[in-house]
Amino acid sequence: MIRSMLALLLPLLAAPALAQTVPAPVPVPALPRVTITTAQGAFTVEVDNVHAPITGNNFLRYVDQKRLDGASFYRVVKVADHYGFVQFGVQNAPAKVLPPIRHEPTTQTGIQHLDFTLSSPRRAVGTAQGEFTIMLGDQSASMDADPAKPGDNLGYAAFAHVVEGQDVVLKIFDAPVSPDASIRGAFKGEVPAAPVKILTARRIKP
């Protein structure tokens, strides 16, 4: 009789222990990294395609399809020492440009335009394609979305950060610009005297 009762009780006593078993945490995949090798050296960016999936994956498409190979850093906006941005991309070349993407404001992604942040410039909302900027200095006040502002207040779409080779980006930023050169009539005073060519842009293991 006692043995029978114990046989009935043991499963009941074990049940709470089983219920308290905590499942092992699911490992979070590492964010993709890309090394951009230029004529001035190489730097590596980490792409946050978790918080900014549309903008981040758009950049990765340009990388994976080798559309950035042979492109250049064609614009430098230097407001002050270590404050401004550099811009690179396919410059709307018909053979390299991909369709426009939906805009991801910083209020949605939570990625701010801080020092060494990559962003996608645009004209109207939803026109960003294959041009990319790298911030030098904290520019969240001017580049982030701000619902309190009038008009188009959605800012630009930040999606990545330079994690290695920041000195190479600064070298590109600090290079001389031409006082007279422009690109199709735009960016006068912001065009590098010797635009820095991108040799390759490739994913690497994190």
Can you give keywords for this protein?
206 residues; alpha+beta; eight-stranded antiparallel β-barrel; two-stranded antiparallel ribbon; 23% helix
Overall 3D shape: globular
Q: How many beta strands in the DSSP annotation?
A: 10
Sheet with most strands = 8 strands, antiparallel, barrel
Helix percentage range: 10-25%
Given as residue ranges, the uncertain stretches (5+ residues, pLDDT < 50) are 4-19
The number of distinct helices, counting runs of at least 4 residues, comes to 5
Please provide the ordered H/E string of secondary-structure elements.
HEEHEEHEEHEHEEE
Output the strand order for the largest sheet: 1-2-7-5-6-4-3-10
Rounded mean pLDDT is: 91
Based on helices, strands and strand pairing, what is the structural class? alpha+beta
- The whole-angstrom Rg is 24 Å
% residues in beta strands: 25-35%
The rounded distance between the terminal residues' Cα atoms is 63 Å
Descriptive notes:
- By secondary structure, this protein is of the alpha+beta class.
- It is 23% helix and 29% strand.
- The protein has five helices and ten strands, in the order αββαββαββαβαβββ.
- An eight-stranded antiparallel barrel has the order 1-2-7-5-6-4-3-10. A two-stranded antiparallel ribbon has the order 8-9.
- Residues 4-19 have low confidence and may be disordered.
Nutshell version of this structure?
The chain has helices at 2-19, 53-64, 106-109, 140-143, 166-174; strands at residues 33-38, 41-47, 72-80, 83-89, 117-120, 131-136, 157-164, 177-178, 191-192, 196-204. The protein is of the alpha+beta class.
